Amino acid sequence: RHTYPNGDEVEYIIVVFECEVSGGELKSIDGESLKLKYFPLSEKPLLALPYLDKIFL
User: Fold this and answer.
1) Is 7 within a domain?
2) Which of 9, 18, 28, 42 could be a cystine partner for 33, CB 3.0 to 4.6 Å?
């Protein structure tokens, strides 16, 4: 659960898949993503919401 500064509370469901990239091009199919990028786990960016890092292990 995340509480925003204005008091609004939200809950998110996160689904994480482990994959192996074999080729191709990253492409947003719905226009909702501004930027797509592959990166090593050691270089993963900080997330906007306070999710636990352990979900990415």
Assistant:
1) yes
2) 28
